[in-house]
Specification:
single chain; seven-stranded mixed β-sheet; 306 residues; globular
């Protein structure tokens, strides 16, 4: 059961916390109701304290029997640094979910699952569900360096084939995840579906590769988000020129219908304020810095970075 404050509001206890890569932490949270309802592809919105920012985070895994969910958090700005400073025994004020539409799980045939950096944590539960549905899973995991490859063993366990790339060649094959995708296509591998989760440039590059091959491609989008219920309109994305809301219509969309340029523009709206807030946090905080990593360089992409 959830812990309770004196005023009757629930708190969510952290049962386990560990860094799985520089600046990337996995948190196991006691949240029985969310664990019972969670389906692959869904997310939660987290708020650490009363005046804190609300941030969307994908549920990496859930255990209905134990009543737990796990999330993977990358230290980027003020809120994620605060979240990653928490340890087992600490509590989070709000964990709301599960939100969003679940992933489409059925037997497609051969599915290529692509994860860039922390996007691997978002792709993993869907890959596992697709494997259980009888699909052949070819997973391609990429990151900038060896140290930033996450969930390798977990992805291997749910994949028929696992390919790994690093930008600098420090582990496995040097290159981008799209290089491996092109290789599969050139080798004549029949691909029935591609799922790509990672930075916007990576997902845009994957969509470019698959569009010409007429391969159905799904991407999971993480735009600016506030309430997670479709009321605020902050998470608008352009799909075939029409506005849809990532929180209730997604977060997964047909990659060939997404306007990635508008997505980049909208996600940059408050970049200046975010940097100023984080700089102020660094000046005043006494919390230890959990090895921050630049958001633009944590995973393999094809071409330039945002």
């Amino acid at each position: 059961m959830e812990a309770w404050l004196a005023n009757g509001r629930p708190l969510f206890k952290i049962l386990h916390a560990e860094f799985i890569a520089p600046g990337i932490k996995r948190l196991l949270i006691q949240a029985p109701r969310i664990a019972r309802k969670h389906r692959p592809g869904q997310f939660v919105i987290v708020r650490i304290y009363e005046e804190g920012e609300r941030i969307p985070l994908t549920i990496e895994n859930s255990d209905p029997q134990r009543g737990t969910i796990s999330i993977v958090v990358q230290s980027l700005g003020k809120t994620t640094h605060l979240l990653n400073s928490l340890s087992a025994g600490d509590h989070i004020l709000d964990v709301v979910g599960p939100l969003g539409k679940p992933s489409e799980i059925e037997k497609f045939g051969t599915v290529v699952v692509m994860g860039g950096g922390v996007g691997t944590a978002m792709a993993y539960p869907t890959a596992a569900a697709l494997k259980r549905a009888g699909n052949r899973i070819i997973s391609i995991v990429g990151a900038r360096t060896k140290e930033l490859i996450i969930l390798e063993q977990e992805m291997k366990a749910v994949s028929d084939v696992l390919m790994i790339t690093t930008d600098d060649g420090s582990y496995a094959d040097k290159g981008f995840v799209t290089d491996k995708l092109r290789q599969l296509i050139q080798n004549g591998v029949r691909i029935d579906l591609v799922l790509a989760v990672g930075p916007i440039p990576m997902m845009k590059a994957v969509a470019h590769v698959t569009r010409g091959e007429h391969i159905r491609t799904i991407v999971s989008l993480n735009p600016l988000m506030i309430d997670g219920t479709g009321m605020c309109g902050g998470c608008r994305v352009l799909i075939d020129g029409k506005s849809e809301f990532a929180c209730v219509d997604g977060p997964e969309f047909d990659a060939h219908r997404v306007n990635f340029d508008v997505l980049v523009q909208r996600n940059s709206t408050y970049r200046k304020q975010e940097r100023e807030s984080f700089a102020d946090f660094q000046r005043t905080s006494s919390q230890p810095d959990p090895a921050p990593v630049d958001a633009d360089v944590v995973c393999a992409v094809d071409g330039g970075r945002p």
